[in-house]
Amino acid sequence: MHFATVAEWTPYLKWLNPGDNAWQMTAATLVGLMSVPGLAVFYGGVMQKRWSVNSMMLTFVAFSLVLVAWCLWAFKMGFGQPIGNGSGFFSTFWGVPGSILGHVGEEGQALIPSIKTGPPFHFPTSTLAYFQFVFAAITPILMLGSVLGRINLKAWIPFVLLWITVVYTINAFLIWGGGFFAAHGAIDYSGGYVIHLAAGVSGFVAAAVIGPRLQRDREIDAPNNLLMVAVGAGLLWLGWNGFNGGDSYYAGANASAAVLNTNLCTAVAMLVWIGWDYVYKDKPSLLGSINGMITGLVAITPAAGFVNGYGALIIGVVASTIVWMAIRYLSRAPLFRKVDDTLGVVYTHGIAGLCGGLLVGVLANSKIIEYFGLKGTAAISAVGGLHLLKWQALTALWVILFSGTATYILLKLVGIFIPLRLSERELEIGDHAIHGNEVYPSDVPTLGGPHHAPWSAPAPALEGGSS
User: What's the sign of the alpha-carbon dihedral 183, 136, 96, 157?
Assistant: First the structure.
């Protein structure tokens, strides 16, 4: 019987690069932290006290739902074999659904079957699946920001499952998985279109369908905890190092460039936002500054690995200016004034993602090459110009029309069986009526008396609609 010597033994398969695999899992964890606890804490702090628990609960539920769907069927729909083995019109829009659970740890080297060019990944399929999951999970959570303060949790559950299955996987396959737009040269480095533009448009449509918050919630729209807001925003900013740094799929020079571009664009965008506040003689606020920060993070996302540092700086200035002006002036237009987009997701994610996606069509630098050593058509690079800009614009138009239309249909479908909007009683009371507790309990539990604990107390009666 032959026993391997210490010199022969290795925990790594011959194709697995430990550095790439470690960075990819680290990047995925950073992106996951952006959702839980990042956005959960951010939403819990930015909403009024009586909506804090509900906002956090909806976030955690969405994260869990997407993970289950991703493993059972959705991952392969976005990144698997095209329908009909690549033949036929619809094969460019969707992958064949299927579970990955039986292959975790056995499926071997990661690959995206519909992509024919480029080098193989040096990590397992399970790493790729989890990395792509955290991107899928954050998308409906971002959309959630548009409908906080009135969406029914019971309707949110089936809607998230349907939206991920129908909307997200198609956009991902078309743009990332080797589908129609990818085949024509459209680029989206890390989700300016697939995630942010889709979330901004879908959130706006959802806000219109579900209806506005109570009038008093719109009039007294003050955060209950700015410290929570700052912590959540900080997790978003630094978590974005994994968001953009992981999308080169290698722990190489391109990942480093993407991380630096991300932070530079974000810093510039936030400072430009503050500058516009001063120009218009507004008081620069923490919330406003965070809007500038988020705008920079979103705008650089489709471009992070395709532009140099000057490109990142330009994107920060242009996107921050456009979004700042949109919030100040476009929000007064009848359509935007009528729709109650709770956190303005259509601006800081929708418009910012659109700006970044179009700007990469102009600023993409052919010297920023994602993978070296490839020849001819296999070389992965991007060159700004009219051809790329045309396909960036067409891709954006698709995402806007498809995501908005599909979101409307799915909401109407769910609404047939489950009310999309909370009841009037729940809207008046908030967390205590929906979940039986509140973020800052006003009652003190009696020692030795579990029945007096605030989390088991009955919801208070209405008092004439007072706050």
Answer: negative
